[in-house]
Amino acid sequence: MKKLTAILFFVIPLALMIQGCTKDLDTAPEVELTLEELLNQDPDAVSGILSRLYASFALSGPDGPGSSDIDDDPGESPFLRGIVNLQDFTADGMKNRWGDDGLDQLTTTSDWDENNKFFRYLYNRIYYTVPQANNLLLVLSAVDIENKGEIEGEVRFIRALAYYYLIDCFGKGVLATEENYGTSDPLPEVDRQELFTYVENELLAVVDLLPDTNDYGRANKSVARILLAKLYMNAEVYTGTAMFNEAVPFISQVINEGGYSLDQNFVSIFSGDNNLSNEIIFPLIADADISQSYGNTTYIVNGSLGTETMTLSDFGAEEGWSGHRATKAWYGLFNNGDLENSTDARAALFWTEGHNYEMTDYRAWTDGYPAVKFRNTFYFSDSNPTSFSSTDFPLFRLADAYLMYAELAVRGASGADMATAVGYVNAVRNRSNASSISQSALDLDFILDERARELNLEGHRRSDLIRFGRFTGNSYLWPWKGNTLNGTSIPETYRLFPIPLTALEANENLTQNPGF
C-alpha cells in the first residue's frame, strides 16, 4: 500500500452526506456516534476524520468510485475533476471531445448558462466541503485533543481553499461558517470583496496555527502561504485593487523557508510514485487500490489515452477513454511547434503519432496531441498497469512558486528582485533542458507562456489568462475559443461562471452573475 501512512481515507467510515448542498448548509454528518462522542471516545480518530475532509477534494464518496457525497454523478462531480474541467478545458491548452451534456460549452467557451451541470458540480462540491469543516470546528471546540490548534488550522485551511475556488470561479455565494451554523433562514448573499476579505483573514490566521512541516498531504505554513500569495496575485481581478506587493513576502517564505527543491526530472513529478517528490508543496492524494476515483488523476490519465493511437501500458494504464487532447496553443509554445527538434523535455510529453497538429474538429480524437504529462507508471521503481491512478495531483509545487515570484518581479512588486526572478525561471527551464533566458527577455508575455509550458493541465490556466487580460475579448485567440475553429471574441462576463440554477432555487437571496 502506497503513501497512506499520513492520509488514511477510510479509517473512519463516515457517511458525510448533505442533501442539496446549497440548501442545507447546517446538515451534520450522519454517523452512528456524533463526532463529539467519537472524539471523546477515541481522540486519535481525528486523523481519520481530517483525512476524510482532505479527501473531499479528490474522491467522490466514502464507499469507492461509485459513491457520492452529494446528489450528483459520482464519476463526473468530484472536486478535482471540476477544477480540471473549469480551469483547463475552458482555456487555451486543453480540449475534450466527448460532448457530454454541458462539456462542449466548456471546451468551446461558449453558450454558458445556469443549467450546465458542470458548474453545478463544482458549486455543490464547495458547499459540501465548507459545512463539513464548520461542523468539525464546532466539535473540536468542545473536546480536548492533542495539537488541537494545529488541527483547527488545517480545517480552516481546507475551508479557505474551498472558498478560494468560489471566489475564483463564481465570485459570490453565501458565507457559511461555524458562527452561523444551524441558522434556519437562508443565508444572505456576499460579494467577491467580502469573500476575499474572509479568506484573506482566515489564511493569515492559520499560518500562525499550522506547523512548519506536516505529514504528506496535509497543510503546513507553506501551503497556507502559497494560497495566500495566489489570493493576493489575483486580487485585482477579484476586488479591483492590486495587491502584488502583499504577495511577495509570502511566496518568498515558501521558497526560502519551506524546504522544497526542484526535482531533477520533470516526469517524476507526474508519475505514480510522485509522493517521493520534494517539489510538491500540497498534493491531492490518489491510490489505485485504496482511494479509487473517476475524478482524481484517473480522469486526467485515462482521459488522455486512447487505444486507437496509443499503447496504454506504456503509461501504466489499463483503460483509455480517448477524451482529452492539447491544442497548438500549448504545444506550439515549444520550438514553434516543432516538438521533435525541441531540446525541452516538456515538449516530449505530447503524443503525436497518428494525431494531427491542427485541431480542425475538437470532437475528433486524432485532431490535436494528447498530453502524456500525467501517467500511472512509477518513476523510481517498476509498477503494473492499473485502471485507477496512483498519481497524486500537485495542486501547489515549487516551480509554480518560482514563476509566481518572477511574475511579481516583472510587475514591479516591492521586494521582488529581477535578478533573482531570472534565476528562478532559468532553474525551472534548465531542469527540462530548455535554454536559459536573459533578464531583458523576461516580461509578462514570457511569464504567461512559461507558465503554460510548465503548469498546463494543473488547474491554473484559466485564472492565469484572466489575470493577464487574455481570457475574454479578442486580444488572444485560441482554437475553438467562442466555438469557432480559429477562435473569436468572448464577452467580459465570461470571467465568471454562472451561478447554478439549483443554487438560485435553493436560496432566494442569491442572484445571478451578470450576462447569464
TrEMBL record:
Annotated keywords: Cell outer membrane, Membrane, Signal
Segments forming domain RagB/SusD: 364-516
Superkingdom: Bacteria
Coiled coil: none
Entry's localization field: Cell outer membrane
Keyword Signal: yes
Domain SusD-like N-terminal stretches: 105-233
Gene3D superfamilies: 1.25.40.390, SusD-like, Tetratricopeptide repeat domain
Stated family: Belongs to the SusD family.
Protein's recorded name: RagB/SusD family nutrient uptake outer membrane protein
